[in-house]
Structures are given as structure tokens and as C-alpha cells.
Amino acid sequence: SSKITIAIDGFSSTGKSTLAKQLAKELGYVFVDTGAMYRAITLFSMQQGYISKDYFDTESLLNSLPSIRLRFEFKPEMGFAVMVLNDVDVEKEIRTIAVSGFVSKIAELAEVRAKLVEQQQEMGKDKGIVMDGRDIGTVVFPDAELKLYMTANAETRAKRRYDELLAKGDTITFKEIYDNVVERDYIDTHRDNSPLVKANDAIEIDNSEMTREAQFDLVMKFVQEKI
Ligand code: C5P
Q1: How far is the CA of 134 from the centre of ligand 1 (A)?
Q2: Could you point out which of 29, 83, 155, 171 has its C-alpha 20 to 30 Å from the C-alpha of 115?
Q3: Would you give per-residue pLDDT tens digits along the chain (227 residues)?
Q4: From the CA of 100, how far away is ligand 1's center (Å)?
Q5: Mutational pocket test of ligand 1: of 16, 83, 102, 103, the residue with most ligand atoms within 8 Å of the beta carbon
Q6: Nearest atom in ligand 1 to 100's CA
Q7: Where are the alpha helices (DSSP H) in 9-57?
Q8: Where would I find the Cytidylate kinase domain in this sequence (predicted)?
Q9: What is the distance between the alpha carbons of residues 46 and 29, in angstroms, rounded to a whole number?
Q10: Which residues of 102-118 are buried (b: 16+ CB within 10 A; e: fewer)?
């Protein structure tokens, strides 16, 4: 059997990363969550004071882009890779609602996307990769052998994210999460640069009413047809 590239795109909180992680583990492939990279650049911008509510110093961010180093570091004890920004593990910080609130603004910038897409293509050059994001099947790996486009209704997605953050001990209201999910969907699908769209050859999966296990079994059937 040959190694393939699996591209998973879709709206926020559709379980893309969970599925991608499961697939990578099953197949012995590399898993890359590209959202983490956009989130890390967002965290950097917040730390430097380049972005805040009602303020965005795009120029300063673009000037410092070349100095931002991102990498994934595999943690055997956790069984997955964490995001490392300029040699600091930021896996926890990038998942906060504060970062979620700004990330789609950062992801609109063509220069930011160009930098990250280049790094993503490099990571996938030998195939055997499962990458999730918004533009993987359309821009990063237009020739991917298997492309999935994941959707679910906004309430279901917000509820999943809410339960996740609650379990982590975050104090947050359902409405805050729901509003953030809806706002990010809007910005991600309407931006000029690499908007979220379904690739022509992607398989759409609406998992509003699907269990993780059922979804995994379904997708593994698609994988078997390709390898
Ligand atoms: O996947 P996640 O929800 O963590 O992604 C956070 C944000 O990063 C998205 O809402 C989107 O604005 C941006 N993103 C993107 N392109 C990708 C991955 C994420 O624009 N490939």
C-alpha cells in the first residue's frame, strides 16, 4: 500500500482535529493541525500588543513575521504534538477564547497565509500526512488523494466546544462560544484570501448526528479505497 495525503477542511469545531488525530494514529501518519499555527501567530500578536479589541497594528506584525518560528513537538506522554512558538510550548494558551476571538483576523492576511502554507507544504512533501484546516484541499494540497469537508450545525459545534472548555475548567458562557463559532464561520467563508470552500473533489460529511466511531469507520472505508 502507498502513502497518501489526507486533507480535512471544514467549519470550526466540527471535530476535524479529533478525526485527523485518530486517522494518523491508525495509519502511522503525521498529523498536522494547521489551526494551531494560525493560533500561535495570533498569540504572538497579542503578546506583542499588535492586536487587541479595536486595534490591529498589521504593519508591525508583518515586519516581525520572518522572526516567528513555529514547530510541532511530539510529546510521547501525551501521544500528540504540541505547538511550539519561538521555543516555548504554547499548546494551552492558543486554545483560549481570547485567541479564538482574534485568530480569524490574523488568518485573513495574505502574508501570514503564504508563510504558513509554505511550511505546511514542506511538512507534507513525503505524503503520509493528515492535515486539517480551512484551505488544505484547495490551496495547500490541491492534489491530495483524499479530501474531506466537514460540517455540522452551529449549535452542535458550539455545544461540543463548550463542553470541552468546561471540562478544562474554563469559565465561559454557551453564548460566548456560540457567537465566536458563528463569527469565525462568517469571516472564514467570506475572506478574500483562501476562503473556506469545499474543494470540487472533496467528500462532504455532516456529523451533526454522527458518533465519532461511526464517522471514523466511514472515513477509514474511504481511506482503504485510496491506499
Ligand atoms: O481549526 P481552528 O478552529 O483551530 O482554526 C482557528 C482559525 O484559524 C480558523 O477560524 C481560521 O480563521 C484559521 N485557519 C485558517 N486556515 C487554516 C486553519 C485555520 O484560516 N488552514
Answers
A1: 6
A2: 29
A3: 799 999 999 999 999 999 999 999 999 999 999 999 999 999 999 999 999 999 999 999 999 999 999 999 999 998 889 999 999 999 999 999 999 999 999 999 999 999 999 999 999 999 999 999 999 999 999 999 999 999 999 999 999 999 999 998 989 999 999 999 999 999 999 999 999 999 999 999 999 999 999 999 999 999 999 99
A4: 9
A5: 103
A6: 6
A7: 16-27, 34-47
A8: 6-224
A9: 33
A10: bbbbbbbbeebbebbbe
Residue closest via CA to ligand 1's atom 12 equals: 104
Q: How many angstroms separate the CA atoms of 109 and 151, rounded?
A: 24
Contacts of 162 (CB under 8 A, 6+ apart): 172, 174, 177, 178
Distance between CA 216 and CA 23 in Å, rounded? 8
User: What is the interface pTM, i.e. ipTM, of the complex?
Assistant: 0.99
